[in-house]
Structures are given as C-alpha cells and as structure tokens.
Amino acid sequence: MPDLKHRRLLSAREYIGVEKIDGPLIFVSKTHPVGYRELIECVDKNGHIRMGIVLESSTNRVVVQVFEGTAGLTLPSTRIRFSGKPLTISVSKEMLGRVFNGLGNPIDGGPAPRSDLDLDVNGMAINPTARQYPRDFIQTGISVIDGMNTLIRGQKLPIFSGNGLPHNELAAQIARQAKIRGSETEFAVVFAAMGVKHDVAQFFVRSFEESGVLSNVALFLSLASDPSIERLITPRTALTLAEHLAFNEDMHVLVIMTDMTNYCESLREISTIRGEIPSRKGYPGYLYSDLAELYERSGMIKGRKGSITSLPILTMPNDDISHPVPDLSGYITEGQIVFEREMDGRGIYPPVAGLPSLSRLMKDGIGEGMTREDHPHLASQLFAAYSYVKDVRNLASVIGEEELTPLDHTYLDFGKAFEQQFVSQRKDEERSIEQTLDIGWKVLSMLPADELHRITEEEIEKFYGK
Amino acid sequence: MSDRIIGQVRRVNGPVIEVMGITDAEMFELVRVGEQRLIGELIKLESGGAVIQVYEDTTGIAPYDPVYGAGMQLSVELGPGMIGTIYDGIQRPLEAIREMSDIYINRGITIPSLNREKKWHFVPAVKTGDRVSEGSVLGAVQETENFKHKILVPPKDAGILESVVPEGDYTVEDVIAVLQTENGQSKNLTLMHRWPIRVQRPTARRLPLDTPLITGQRVIDTLFPVARGGTVAIPGGFGTGKTMTQQAVAKWCDADIIVYIGCGERGNEITDVLAEFPALIDPRSGRSLMERTILIANTSNMPVSAREASIYTGITMAEYFRDQGYHVAVMADSTSRWAEALRELSGRMEEMPAEEGFPAYLPTKVAEFYERAGSMEALNGQTGSVTIIGAVSPPGGDFSEPVTQHTKRFIRCFWALDRHLANARHYPAISWLDSYSEYLNDIAVWWEQQVGAAWLDDRTEIMDLLQREVRLQQVVKLVGPDALPDTQRFIIEVCTLFKNAFLQQNAYDKIDMFSVVPKQARMLHIIVEYWKRGRDVIKAGATLVELRKMKVYQDIIKMKFSVPNDDLSDLDKIEARLGRSMDQLEALHA
Ligand SMILES: Nc1ncnc2c1ncn2[C@@H]1O[C@H](COP(=O)(O)OP(=O)(O)OP(=O)(O)O)[C@@H](O)[C@H]1O
Ligand SMILES: [Mg+2]
Question: Does residue B467 share a domain with residue B525?
C-alpha cells in the first residue's frame, strides 16, 4: 500500500495514452493511486501542456477535467502527469496592475510576478468565529444604493441584471466612486471575467485607466473565446489573490466577477457530461454549495485590517429572477441590486428596481454616527411609499387614472419624482450621502405628513418639507 | 481513538468514499480516513465493501488510503460546558478550533466537544446504595448563574449505586458515581455521557400540547401561535425574513434553552448572533441571552456532509436538556440546505432519485426529524419539551416544491413568508392568508386564563375582517375604491390599520422588538374596538374622513412604539380616549 511519500515519487510518472475523452473530461485507467482534486498536466502530441484537476479517483480509473479544453487531443498520444498536490497559484502584491488568464498566468506580455507564496485556489472555509461582522458604510455616490440598498465594506452584493442592461457601467461607477468617508486606506480591485466578450473586458480596463487606478487592479480574464471550462477556475484564482491582499497585505479589496451565469453554465456542462442527476433546469444539485464556496470568501476577519467586498454580476436568463442562478445567488449573498428592463426603457439610469433590491447589511451601517440619524426611517418609508405607488399603478391600469382618489394621484406624482430625481442620475454623478438623503426628503414631502407612518414626529419636524 | 483499520479507499467522489476490504465495521460507525484522519461516518455496508460520508474536504484522498474505525457511532458529548458554545455540524467547538488553526478550519482536527480540564461544582442528589434507573437525576452543576445542569444516568443504564462522590469540583471525565447494573457489572458514571445523534432519546410518554411558546412577535403569538413541543415551518424565498424571524424568536421566546442550527447558511449571520446575543439581556432572567443559547454552525461553504449531520447534532442536544425538565426551542436554518445535502450525497452514491433529484426517502427523513419534537414526560418523571422551528428555502420561492410539500405534512404550524410583503418592507412578512396554526384551540385556554375571554373573540373578529378585505380588494381592483360604500371601505381601513399598527413589528426598535402577552391582547382589543364602534357610527351617518381625523387614530398607529412592555397604563388612556372620541362622533350624528 503506497504511503504519501511513495505517492509523491510516483507523481513523476507519466501515463501515455488515455481511455476516453468526453468534452473537457479525460478518463485514465491503470494509474497509481491518485488523490482527489489533484492537479494534473496533460501534454498533447505537440508537447503543449494543459492543466486540469482530478474530479474522481478510484482503483481502476481516474476522471480529470482539463481547463484549456480537449480540442486536438487523441487517445493514444495524450500524456498525463499527476502532481500529487492541489491546484495552487503564486500570489503577491506585484500582481496588481497586471492581466492574467483564468489560471493565473500572465497574458499581458510581462514576466511572471515574483512571489514566494503558493495558495490552494479552492481556499478553505473561514471559521465563523474568526469573522468580523461588517459595519462600515461605503459611499458609492449612487442614491438608490447609498440611500436604500447601502453597500457595506466586506459585503457580497450581486447585481442581478439582464442582457443589454448597464450593469458594467454601474459596476465601473461603483469601483470608481466607492469610498469610506474620512479614511484613507490602501485599496485594490480584483476583476474576474468569465465568458464575457473582449469589449466588456476592454470597457473595464478603460474605465480603470481613466480614473487612474489601473495600477491597483488585477484582471483575470477568461473570455468568451477561451475554453468554457477555464471559467470554473477563474473566480477561484481571483479570490485567492483577493484573500491574500486582504488578509495578508491589509488591503481593502473590491472583487468584481462577471458573468456568474456563464460560470454556472460551465458547471452545468461538466455535470451533464458526467451524467449527474440534475436538479432544476439541468443545473447540478450542488450549484448552491459551489456558489457558496465562492461568495462566502468575502468578508472581514477579526484582527486583520483588510476586507473583501464583492460585486458579482449575473445576467438573469429571460429576466427571470426565479431562474436557478439568480435564485441560488440570492440565497447566499447579502442582498441584491436588481435591474428592471422597463425602467431602462424609460431612460432611467441606474435602472434599479426599488422593491426586489435589498441590502441585508445596511441596518448596522446606517443611522446616527454612520450616515445620518434619519436614514433608517427615511429608507423604510421610501420603500413603503414606492410599494404603494406600484399598487396604484396597477389599479390605474385597470380602472383608469381618472377613477383614482386624489390621494392616489398624489402617490403617482411621488412615484414619478422618486424615479426621476432620486433614482436617476448621471453615470459620472457622485452624490454625497447628505445629498442623497435630502433628495429623498424632497420627494417624500410630496406626500401628506400623516401618510408617513414609519417616520417619527421629530423627524417630520426636522426634515419634512425642508 | 482506536487504530483499528477497517478497510481501504476504493473510490473518492467528493465527500462520498467507497471502501474495500471491509472486515468488521458497524453501520453508522465513526471512521477516519487517510493519513490526515478525516472524520467520516459509515453509511452503507455491503459484502466486503462500505460507503462512508466524510465530514471534511477530501482533497488529496487516494485509493488504497487506510480507513480507521472508532468502534462507536457518530455521537455527541452531553454534559456541562455546552451552554454558550458554538459548534460545527459534528460538535467540534469552533472557538477551540480557531486557537489551533487560525482563521480557516484546517482538516483532520480532533478536539473534544466538552472541555476536559475545566472543573464543575457538582452537588449530588443521590447517595451510595440508592437504586437509580435510566434518566435518574444524580445531581446538578450550576452551569451559569441561571442554568442548573442536571446530571442524568444515561438512558439504558440502571441499577444500584456502589459509590457516589461528595459535593466538589470535577471534570467531565472524573468518575462521580459507580453503578452496579442489573447484570452485576460495575459502570463508571461521569458528568458527561455520549449519545448517537441519529437515535431519538427515549422518554416515558408524550404529553398533550397546551401551553404556547410565547415569542413576543405579535403576528405569531396572536394569529399563528405555536405550542411548546410543537413543530413549525417557515418557508419563504430569499430575503423574505426566515433568518430574522428565527433570530427574533431565539431572542425573545420563553424557552429555557435555545439550540440555533445554522445549517448551510451564511457565515456572517452566525457572526452576527455571536456579536449580538451576549450583549442582549433575556427579559425573564435578566442575564445575557448567550447564557441559554447553543449555536451549531455549519455554514454554506463548510463540508456538505457535516451539514447533513448538523440537524441531528442539534436535536440530540435539545432532547438531552428536555430530559432534564427544560423547555427547549430548536431553530433550524435552513432545513432545505439539509435536504439538499441529502440529495447531493444520494446522487454521489448513485441512488435512484425521486422528485427533483431528491432521494425517495426524503419524506421519511423529514418526518423522523419533526417527530423528535414534543412535550414529554422524561424517564425520570420530569416534563420538558422540544419545539422545532424549521426554515424552508424553496427554489424560486415556489411552495409546491418537494421539501416544502413534505415538510407541510409533518408540521402543524406554518408561517408562510410573502414576497410581496417583504418587498413592501412589511416585516415580519408572515402572510395572514397563507399561514396557519393547528395549535390555536389547544392553547386558547391558556390565553383565556392569562388575559381573559375576549382574546379569542377579538382574534376571530380580526381574522374575519382580513378575509373580507381580500374580497373587497378584488372589487376595488375592478371598479375602484369609490364604488364601495363607506361601511365596506371602513373594513379596508381597519385592516390597513391592523397591518401597520399591529402586524408590522420592527425588529430593530427597542420597544417594538418584542411585545408581552398583555400588551398584544390589549392592542388587539383596541383595534377591534375601533372597528366595532366605527362601524356603528358610520351606520349612524359619520364619514370615513371624520373617523380618520380623530386624534386617537395617530395614538393607535404609534402605540406599539410608545407603550413600554413594563408599563401598559398608556393603553388604558388610549382606550379611554377612543371611547370618548367615538361618543362624540355618535352624539354629532344622533
Ligand atoms: N422582522 C424584520 N424587521 C426588520 N427587517 C427585517 C425583518 N425581517 C426581514 N427583514 C429584512 O429583510 C432582510 C432579509 O431577511 P432574512 O435574512 O431573515 O431573510 P431570509 O428569508 O433568511 O433569506 P435567505 O433565505 O436568503 O437566508 C434582512 O436583512 C432585513 O433587512
Ligand atoms: Mg436566511
């Protein structure tokens, strides 16, 4: 029975010829005992090396998944080497300002960054007792976020969008404008692109360049033209660097991952090829756990200065929020910014739907001493009033606007002002939290004071109609 | 732990490992795999082979790696030191793990669940020569200021005490008594004992459920109450308030012990509890809430098989405290993640799936879990209860999916969370139309004794109005509100008032976060009075506008925030003012 050391020695062995190739999967038989999730190298007939990992290992067969795809491989000429260790990447601060592929190899023509730390890309579960509950308000300068769906440092807050909606613009605007007021700290952006087009990546690069932060950004690109399987590893490499920067180098890291839907599709592809029993819409039953392994890597740690705030972007197939990808994401993340195509059609930017959007961490990051004392009640009242506006609009579409009561008419006017003055803003407009709250009061004051059940008398006194 | 090798790895597929060359091994035996000694459990035996599920990440495990058997089933340690502790799904103490492995959870860590060094002050209640039977109380340890931990003879043991230690300080492993069992063997008893998590602890008998578990949440206690020993499901799509509701109940309910199981959910939610609970004061004991809470955290990124076990770990602890005569409330957030863990493990074992990939035995497992709730007479004659409150996370928020449907068959109280209410930030977003409680009649007597007979009538009245409102709203949607006569529009008004002033409850407000029983009953009564008197004055000719203009209307809206739990005298004033205002209106239209 080979022990661990023996196995390492065996790792140097190379197997020539494989049993079966199916999509990105290769089946190898008669190997030495190979560890689960071990890193492999697959050499094609031209000597070109592709990387992969072991998905399943047994006494008679090993299943490996090759990240660069299996195009051009043949059964007899393919050679496989097992490394005896899991997939790792070398991380360092020098990776900022550079561009990598999904596996962490530089693709910007520069040399490999110097590093003496290799980390397992799968990461490890953070002990919940080591976490620090996130509370610091991040001002994004965007009213509908700061006012009603406040972003907190260390939060995971995805954007649920749809094809053709301005999610990239919003993510870039947040990356540009995000700040913690009254503090100057080292920050970095880690950007992971999965299956998006080249121009999307270019858009972000340009945006970082224009705001002069490119040297603080590390990009991991696995574009639409790259093998789809590489997308499965891309967010893991990116998050591994993010963890290093945040928890070893004390930096505040913003992670932008786009598009999570492409990631999930790659996962589905592998699962289907392996013949696994699907749950909903063909996605594997472990999609929830798999996404959680990514999303849960954000946060703050007691006694460490840095943080990971993540903004995953996903496009909802058919704009359907109950589709497994947005649905399972919503079950894991700490809220969501939901885009609405209808608002986009009316020219409102950002087209953030008021009601289904939510920031779960805002409760501890707003109010007196953090934003302003009226913020919690104001936000709650805006939600309630806007929700009523939606009801009135539905009613009006059936019985006609003329039939509405005078009060309901007032609500309709409020709704319009809310969308046009509060939600809507320019792509380069940065509002302070005070400006945001003041606009909130301005539109809210269109409603009679005795309609505002969620606001205290003192607040009415101080802010209403001012 | 023994070094008995029971077989070798044949195949690794995530957390599921097939083992070959099995000689002697028992079903559900605790095992360790490979050089790293990863913890697992044997879940299937066949000739020469076995299947184990591993509770840690199996990266690096290879065929021919040895598998060691521990000679016992996967169990929890029960004894002093559990209160206020946070464990993972297989009862490893996470604080202690952090001291050993820093911020991440390393693999292969072995650490006792109960501290072996700490001494507890034990006061015996028995003496040498006493005859004891299973579950008998041997004595007690004052574990926290308010919590007396009773030391029990483990189930299945009985006999005569050969010796008992004097009062003094002992560790959980020190022998505190020696028992001569029926078949003449001597058995050492300690402050702790082990119990296999998948086996329900025995009791003498089930008792009827007649006392509510008071949660301080008005929509629950007043509209959809749960009995001590009862079972509740809270289904709802993401972000509708399952966790918030469970946390509110965990904070304010009148149980003696809370077992909070974070099963496949967020790390930060556990951190939140850890940060918040110690600082909150239990209104009944005046002590920190953490002193009655046990946390089990197997977050979504922790191994999926330990998530499957976490539910059983939690419920076994709850049964142990019940056997000491305490009332325990178990929160499981979320049972869907547990069901999904079952599905994943089943899939990897290549079992035949039933609906949506779930194994065919899902309903059996769900039933077994909820069966472990109840109000019981323990073997020692004490009465205690285990109430289970399980969150359900239906995909797409669609309640017709298998986990919600099967759960519904085995629970008797259903707090359905409504997406529309949550979106409008009406919290708790518990739907008054889709929720139900089958305990209402069982506990109505209790309410009547506490707050008087009017309670049930008031509740019936308001539920009736809420039903009528739905039909009226349908009419409004077709023809507009103006088409309704004032008497009917008033029903809509009263319901709106009831939703704003009573059902909505702000978990972050110092006064509103919980309401004592008399406050709930009085608030309800005031709103029902407003309805009854208002209906009469409208009939007499008053208008809705006049009713709305009454100053007392604003008092009623704000009473949940303005009237503190320990001084309800302002409710008297509001009720009196309501009476006078209505009298005046009546006089005006006489
Ligand atoms: N009773 C309440 N009072 C105030 N806010 C609430 C209440 N219930 C829910 N909320 C708000 O809704 C958010 C989501 O609630 P919660 O985390 O309980 O949802 P959930 O149903 O557990 O979601 P998931 O299934 O994704 O875990 C909270 O962060 C809070 O902002
Ligand atoms: Mg939750």
Answer: yes
